[in-house]
Amino acid sequence: MSAPRLIFDIAGAAAVVFAAILVVHRNPIKGLLAAVVSLFAIAGEFVLLSSPFLAAIQVIVYAGAILVLFLFVLMLLNLDREAGPEEGHRMQKLLGFVAIVLFAGMMLAAVRSSGALAGSSGEPAPTGEVVPLAAALFSQAALPFEAVSILLLAALVGAFVLARRDSAPRPPEERP
Amino acid sequence: MSAVPLTHVLAVAVALFSLGLAGALLRRNAITIFLSIEIMLNAANLALVGYGAHVGGYSGQIVAFFAIAVAAAEAAVGLAIFVSVFRHNETIDVNKIRLLKW
Question: What is the CATH number of the domain that holds B42?
Answer without folding.
Answer: 1.10.287.3510
